[in-house]
Amino acid sequence: MKIEVVQDNQNKRSQRNIILIANFIDGYADGWRFAVRECFRDALDIKLTAKVTNKIEDYIWTQGTQFNFSQGDILYDTRLAYELTWGEALKHIKLSIQINEITPSKTVIFKLYRPNKERLIIEEVDRIECTQAAFVSFLQTGIITMSDNKNRNVFQEYDHH
User: How far apart are CA 86 and CA 92, in angstroms?
Assistant: First the structure.
């Protein structure tokens, strides 16, 4: 896991919060709709931050707002997709996503996939564009806020198995 240490300074633009949006348990964000692994800490702007108290330097995890997922990132709705063989994982996957285009801290365009009825392959079912913040919320809840401010529950829309 890549750990980037950032300096805690009083610059309001780089203010970091000690309350994190993800609590990682057994390598995954606890309670999230998608199985977001710890390797995405940096994309979630969760960084190890140096803090100095009474001249003693300590390091704590802090949360920023500069989300930065990458083109090609793939996420699944179940951790079993990472832990089982692909043939077995397909029996458990409801939806997966792959990021196609990205503008750091701004826009994400991703494709939504689901297994076919036979559960032999995954098929593209949608292409969605949203802000990075809406994308992170989608990973947490499974509900995406579109650019027209309407919410879509894609798990309900594509649940046919």
Answer: 10
pLDDT at 147 (0 to 100): 78
* Reported pTM: 0.85
Tokens of 74: 């793939």
Which stretches within the chain are classed as H helix?
Answer: 80-83, 86-89, 132-141, 154-157
CA torsion sign, 26 to 30 to 36 to 40? negative
Q: How far apart are CA 79 and CA 72, in angstroms?
A: 18
**93-127: per-residue pLDDT in tens?**
999 999 999 886 689 999 999 999 999 999 999 99
User: Residue 37: which of 87, 46, 117, 61 has the closest Cα?
Assistant: 46
Residue 137: other Cβ atoms inside 10 A: 18
Helix (H) or strand (E) holding 122: strand 122-131
- Domain spans, the chain: 5-63, 74-157
pLDDT band at 11 (very low <50, low <70, confident <90, very high): very low
Question: Kind and range of the H or E element at 96?
Answer: strand 96-102
